[in-house]
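hey so u asked for the seq, here:
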Amino acid sequence: MRTRLGLAVLILAGLLLPAWSPAAAAPADFASNAALLRFISHYRAASDHRDLPAAVRAMSQFGVFHNPDSAGVYVGFLAGALAAQPAEADTLVAALGTLPAEDQWVAVRAIAWSGLPEWKALMRRHGARFPTRQVMMEKYLAGEMPTLQQLTLAIGERGFWHKVRGYFKSTPAPAKGTMLTPTPDLIDALWGYHFASRHYQPIGRIVAMLPWAKDRDHVDLLMLGSMAKFTLATNAARDPELIGLLKRARPHVGKETGKQLDEVIVAADTVDVGAIRAEAMAAVEEIKRKGSATSRDVAWWSRMGESAIALGCIGAAAAGQVALGLPCVVGGALSSAVVRNSTAGGG
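ran it, structure tokens below
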């Protein structure tokens, strides 16, 4: 079974590939998944944006857009690339216009998720390039589909809004139909946006999920919080710029978020993320033993499909969580599969 690539691969690629340096040149072509992922994780807009058209072609050729539920890191990356280089937005959208019909949804979503002040004008200007997605464009332009900037830290469909607002009191209730709720793929998209733009906003959204890492009543919130914590620590351990962002943010977050962020920063400073992974595993074991409000409800995870395993939670199906009706957790069981997939792709 073909392993889908997501943030887990970016984390793994970061561990296996040389660290970025200002002198490192963007790859001339993308002959493998590893080359593409290196480009994404080491991307700097000022020097690398000219290689974006080739990267877009490679993404399509590698089939990363075939499953929308596990394509978040790539869509987020393209949206962030637009945000990072607004003067080059028309050029990048023109490159997206070469995507085959089945992948054109990516271009439309990247434009809408870019957060550019003039994204609607950009979409109207290039709408003819995406004839198979006219309805999708109309819904975005009418405000009937949410943008990435409208992500709300709620699981409204599950009725958790009241509980979640206890964590984030400043977040207003979203309008019906214009709400993005957190999922593993959305965490992927936020990371992709950050890799391309180096903006703090997507990192701030991930940081705001950290209190969920201590939730013991709702396994979905626990898993999202654990994924947020693990991916922040793992990426910050290798990225001085990111750990600097987190340290500057620390005085401005609430008490519960601050406790979790302190642990992320220490783990990154000491390059010791194993404790965070072990903590997440222990929390899931506790829920397995004692039960929880959602431990028998697998519908939420069914809707996510394979995206949970494709992302940075690094699925623990081999350890038995999935068979027991629990989702994957940061455990490392997918690492060998990722290596095999990267090797098969030529990396």
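Residues 4 and 136 are 25 Å apart (CA to CA). Residues 1-347 form one domain.
lmk if thats what u needed
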